[in-house]
Amino acid sequence: MSTTHSNASDVASMVETYTATRKASEEFAAPLAIEDYMLQAMDDVSPTKWHLAHVSWFFETFLLKPYLGGYKPIEERYEYLFNSYYNTVGPQYHRPSRGLISRPTVAEVYAYRKHVDDNMLALFEQASPSLAAEIAPLVRLGVNHEQQHQELMVTDLKYNLAINPFKPAYHDREIPRGVATPPLGWVEHPGGIVQTGWEGDSFAFDHESPRHDTLLHPHRIASRLVTNGEYLAFIADGGYERYELWLSQGWAKLNGEGWKAPLYWEQIDGAWWHYTLSGMQKVDEHAPVVHVSYFEADAFAGWAGKRLPSEDEWEHHAEKLAIEGNFADDRLFHPVPLDTGSGLPAGELSQMYGDVWEWTGSAFLPYHGFTPLEGGPGEYNGKFMMSQMVLRGRIRSHTPESHALNLPQLLLPA
Amino acid sequence: MSTTHSNASDVASMVETYTATRKASEEFAAPLAIEDYMLQAMDDVSPTKWHLAHVSWFFETFLLKPYLGGYKPIEERYEYLFNSYYNTVGPQYHRPSRGLISRPTVAEVYAYRKHVDDNMLALFEQASPSLAAEIAPLVRLGVNHEQQHQELMVTDLKYNLAINPFKPAYHDREIPRGVATPPLGWVEHPGGIVQTGWEGDSFAFDHESPRHDTLLHPHRIASRLVTNGEYLAFIADGGYERYELWLSQGWAKLNGEGWKAPLYWEQIDGAWWHYTLSGMQKVDEHAPVVHVSYFEADAFAGWAGKRLPSEDEWEHHAEKLAIEGNFADDRLFHPVPLDTGSGLPAGELSQMYGDVWEWTGSAFLPYHGFTPLEGGPGEYNGKFMMSQMVLRGRIRSHTPESHALNLPQLLLPA
Amino acid sequence: MSTTHSNASDVASMVETYTATRKASEEFAAPLAIEDYMLQAMDDVSPTKWHLAHVSWFFETFLLKPYLGGYKPIEERYEYLFNSYYNTVGPQYHRPSRGLISRPTVAEVYAYRKHVDDNMLALFEQASPSLAAEIAPLVRLGVNHEQQHQELMVTDLKYNLAINPFKPAYHDREIPRGVATPPLGWVEHPGGIVQTGWEGDSFAFDHESPRHDTLLHPHRIASRLVTNGEYLAFIADGGYERYELWLSQGWAKLNGEGWKAPLYWEQIDGAWWHYTLSGMQKVDEHAPVVHVSYFEADAFAGWAGKRLPSEDEWEHHAEKLAIEGNFADDRLFHPVPLDTGSGLPAGELSQMYGDVWEWTGSAFLPYHGFTPLEGGPGEYNGKFMMSQMVLRGRIRSHTPESHALNLPQLLLPA
Amino acid sequence: MSTTHSNASDVASMVETYTATRKASEEFAAPLAIEDYMLQAMDDVSPTKWHLAHVSWFFETFLLKPYLGGYKPIEERYEYLFNSYYNTVGPQYHRPSRGLISRPTVAEVYAYRKHVDDNMLALFEQASPSLAAEIAPLVRLGVNHEQQHQELMVTDLKYNLAINPFKPAYHDREIPRGVATPPLGWVEHPGGIVQTGWEGDSFAFDHESPRHDTLLHPHRIASRLVTNGEYLAFIADGGYERYELWLSQGWAKLNGEGWKAPLYWEQIDGAWWHYTLSGMQKVDEHAPVVHVSYFEADAFAGWAGKRLPSEDEWEHHAEKLAIEGNFADDRLFHPVPLDTGSGLPAGELSQMYGDVWEWTGSAFLPYHGFTPLEGGPGEYNGKFMMSQMVLRGRIRSHTPESHALNLPQLLLPA
């Protein structure tokens, strides 16, 4: 977020963005059975019900309580129950037990959402121009926070449904299958001092700023994502059996958990299938590989004689491209083969936005000159800058063992 | 065990008992929100949804599949999903993850129940006299199995709701409060060889037989249960702080988990409250103490200069009494003070049935001459005869750290 | 229990027993390298160095400090460091870390022993007849305590050396090999009320008393121990692969730890070997099987169509026999085949003393009328009466998963 | 290491360096009791005995076996037992159990060392000039490897002795105490492209190369290390109680393990003491703070309104300084106050070498252009480039929770 002075004080626009975002969360949840809202299949995922409540808590805590005179919470104890990790606000309910709370029920959580929405609209309505200007950055942060949780709802729900031996589908959307893999090209860069980091009027999280000088080494970057077909060649070549390809920590993980392929992959009668939100599907060799951990991405890159891009390299190339792609808004929730995707050319640096998040070879650390926000929102990002690698697309980082929705780009050292 | 007195080959009576038992399970669940059915707040409890399905699985597996020609399961994979621990039947879904399964939904589980019921009724209807005679013991076992799970549904649900910081009540039944604690009397017994273990026409689990000789030492047994008031005196006298009162394993548990009082007790503004299925209630000094582990029961008895009764002593005294009391059928789900209870005299050996289960000082081991049932039902009890102490009332045993619905009787060594 | 028959108030005899016992401990340790004294290969075993110090601590704590005027400890902090589990004495050093203490060194522990011995002899020397009478039971307890730790030193050292991939031998004593297995006979007993439990002048631990009535059912008991040959038949018949033979808790353990044979057994080029204190040896089919857990003993007995004896049965038969056998005093530290053993007849109830400890089917619980000792020694046994099964020979009990030096006797139900 | 072509082929110099290094390891161990050699007080430290054997294994594996014709190992199985983590060489003995191996004894390990030394000298003696040139880089790597383990022997021994409640001293060297803390100055740097990474004839580990361009931002760096006095002010200001100063992972660690001060610190009667290899000492407010984790260093820097230097900044400043300081060779094994140290001026950038290792704010990742060595030595460093932060002085990195011998430098953002 931060210090944007855009037309965010335009109340009508604020209302529109707020309303659209809130609606999108509920639309995502609409196909779920009540029982699905409760699932927390491991400590690091959260129930859909919790996400829907927590994003409301964010608006209640940072907007309604400080700025709406006479605001009355629907339930005082939600302050504790739906706080994720904000010590500034107070103690938090034990995270791994979020799935053990049946009350409030789903209906009560929707009532909570409505209560927050009604009051937010009241706040917008009565806001003077100066108050509107003051709350605009927080509203924008809240909206982006909810959008971030929409992505988490997708990945968490996928994990929660996938552990069910029945492998239930979330929806019946058909995932397009590829016909041919476009050839791999390389985009050259001569290196030199460039600037990365966000600056401008539109929204960014605090840790995406400030814009600062950085030195790129001469390099070239692959024109498209690694495909399942290419990843299958890695597997076939003993990729999961050769210690010399792996970081020591990754090799221990692989052996401890018996990794043989990306998360959600399963071999059935000799063929590879994987779980998707459209149910079990045969792996499409033309589609981008997805759900690989950093360890797998790094091992694959080393096997291919390449390396992962640095975050600076990724960002420098990406910021020249139009922000178009197969996003969560499209509700497919699965990457598409390049030759079927959204009319994008199979040319230079395709699919950098949308489809997947992409591992970089950089650690998640503060940009030069980083300053966290004041107060509660200052706990958003800075305190997590340790033991994570940068994953780009939408968010900046993840623990290296995480099999998030992602895949590596290939880079040849110049 | 217990009260099924029908002529087992009498089909009409079989239908009646079957139908009544199945209905009772669903009546228990009726007040629940869908979300409540999903809860598994620790490995040793199961979701209500799972209980409702598993008891149906029992009839399907041991009656419908072997005896109903042309029987078609509603879903083949339930054989695996709802098997608790019967290796004879096949592999079992991972027990601690029962709460992570959203599908089948609650509605689908009720459809499963209906499918099993319809087919069971068809089986009863078309059974020849000889088939009726053959299936009667299995039906009786299935009915008692479901009744046992009804008790588990109560204790499991209580645990599952109690961990919710909102402490939601299951129902609004009012628990009677005592006015005075009846004086403690002692029933003497001269000792000698007696017989214990079940024999007869009515139902008993395999491990409750055979009837066999046992030697009682001269002893006397308390006429009523220990009250909360008496237990509060133990707490006030440093009961939870004096290592010399505790078994070594219990003392380690107490320290490791910070025990200060029975499970579900909480001190609020200096007064003791406890969670009940009617919500948080002030502890009633005249009511029997409940939810103490074996370690607590044993420490209390030692502190009082007494010991727990042996299983043989308990059974010998109990089998002379009428089977009357405050049972789960009464749906109060909480013990009542003796002076308010069901019109029972406060005299000799009150409340041995109903209200609570009672710890004995005996280990859970086979009765002399014990033979398990054949096939799958043979896994019901025998293989668990290790590391448990005998708890009487309805079931025979539990792990010593379990805070089940129970309390100690006091016995003076003669 | 055992064989100290001196008149306890006879000081000369006290000195003699004390001195002999203290010497025996040091003779056991004599072949060890300094490094061996330090080993603690799992939480439940203790380093030899610790045992040697702790038994001295026992005399210091319960004899020297209370009874020897002006006694000065060689090091005050040993009171804490070498306390095993006596809360009465004070806090204890963390048990699983006993192997992490290099100082005091082995030499310093021997100096500690000498300091205690010198002072104990001074105490004996200056004891008035009445003091001698007062301390005699405590000296006797201390001597028996040290003898018990001598057995623990053997089993702990065996475990500690066995985990070394070099499988170092403790000594080069040759273990006699059998030529033929004597036929199995059965000793009949008509049942009835008998007395068990110790009573008399010689020493016994508190939990071995009092003598009390008990009811034996008619039974017969095997005339000799189960052999390795018989146990190999159990293995060959799928003993470790058939769930129906095992207690549920044992089956989980077997699968969790990959049991395929008794502890210390290893299959090398198709033949079974096992680690002994004389190094790796080929398993002798004529020798008693040893190092089986309760779960294995119970599974074997069930497979053989028998059961384990109850403690009362074992004790009733054993107490009629002369206390002769292959004891730790003989320093072989391994059971011998019956046809090579000490000239004992292969007849009725052989090898009940010595060679091995024997699992019974009884839980470790207080004998009727049991009263613990006063003060510190009262923590010796009573507080461990939970979750253990009775193992006879020398000590009364062990956890069921322990692979102690033991084996089952077979009993046919009459 | 890498591709150095210095006069390393000079055999006499090789012999001299080799001999001196081998001798230094044994001199370090000389004051130890045999028992001390065995200690492994947590998984991440190794027994001194193991270190002494493993460094010999390195020479045996990478020099003697490939290059000395007819070489006979003293014990074949040491190849497995003393392999640390080289999968190229073969499987490895379980690391956390290194302290559970009593045999080979300490004397046998010294015999192993002598066997390796005798054969290494034979190899040197018979080496042709071309062989000498070929082995020179490996000898140099082996020597530096052994020196690295000498530092580990110091830190591991310190941890191993410190957990002993008797807090035994390793030696009786007196640690100089400071009189006054020199004022803190700041060295300015204008930023710009500089080169870091090693290049030249002298030795470096592979991950310290190649030399490459890097961009420094304008900054200033503190002229001296943070003192205990300054760190005490942080503690007094609630440093260990204020969540907002800590990374989330560090705050969890602090709470989980109850951190209140640096490792080895203890408050006795209101004053702070800490364990040193000279025994318990009062904390000297003028001496550099030491044994802080990355989390503590980072929290301190944030509290002081500063940040930690980047690795590039540290290296750029350090490489201009003479390599002088209070090194392990000096055998004090503790940092000294600046005003008492080795005659160094209290001026610009003091104590960057010696005394302590210093945390930087950089993650441990490959330098641009990094290529690991071929074969076994290639496993030395590259595979550990994950989840570690860079710690400079001698080694490049450590896990952030490690309380190594280190402390932060302060840097003001320009």
Assess the beta-strand content of chain A as a share of residues: 5-15%
CATH domain class name of the largest domain in chain A: Alpha Beta
Looking at the structure, the CATH topology of the largest domain in chain A is paralog of FGE (formylglycine-generating enzyme)
Largest Cβ-defined interface: A-D, 33 and 34 residues
Low-confidence stretches of chain A: 1-8
Using only CA atoms, what is the Rg of chain A? 22 Å
Shape of chain A: globular
Determine the oligomeric state from the structure. homotetramer
Largest sheet: spatial strand order of chain A? 1-4-11
Q: What string, H for helix and E for strand, traces the elements of chain A in order?
A: HHHHHEEEEHHEEEHHEEEE
Main sheet properties of chain A: 3 strands, antiparallel
Number of domains of chain A: 2
- SS summary, helix count of chain A: 9
* CATH-defined superfamily of the largest domain in chain A: paralog of FGE (formylglycine-generating enzyme)
Structural class of chain A: alpha+beta
Mean pLDDT of chain A, to the nearest integer, reads: 90
Word description of this protein:
- The structure is a homotetramer of 414-residue chains.
- Chain A has 414 residues and is an alpha+beta fold.
- Chain A folds into 2 domains: 2-162, Four Helix Bundle (Hemerythrin (Met), subunit A) (Up-down Bundle), CATH 1.20.120; 186-413, paralog of FGE (formylglycine-generating enzyme) (Alpha-Beta Complex), CATH 3.90.1580.
- Helices cover 33% and strands 11% of the residues of chain A.
- Chain A has helices at 11-29, 48-67, 78-81, 106-126, 129-162, 228-236, 248-257, 294-303, 311-318; strands at 186-189, 192-196, 212-216, 219-222, 265-268, 271-276, 279-282, 358-363, 389-392, 397-398, 411-413.
- In chain A, the strands form 4 sheets. Chain A has a 3-stranded antiparallel β-sheet, with no helix packed on it. A 3-stranded antiparallel β-sheet of chain A has the order 5-6-7, with no helix packed on it. A 3-stranded antiparallel β-sheet of chain A has the order 8-9-10, with helices on both faces.
- In chain A, a hairpin with a 2-residue loop joins strand 6 (271-276) and strand 7 (279-282).
- In chain A, helix 1 (11-29) runs antiparallel to helix 4, helix 1 runs parallel beside helix 5 (129-162) and helix 2 (48-67) packs antiparallel against helix 5 (129-162).
- The radius of gyration of chain A is 22 Å and the shape is globular.
- The model of chain A is unreliable at 1-8 (pLDDT under 50).
- Chains in contact: A-B, A-D, B-C, C-D.
- Chain A binds chain D through residues 85, 87-88, 193, 212-215, 217, 243-244, 246-251, 294, 361-363, 365, 368-369, 378-379, 383-387, 400, 413, and chain D through 85, 87-88, 193, 212-215, 217, 243-244, 246-251, 294-295, 361-363, 365, 368-369, 378-379, 383-387, 400, 413.
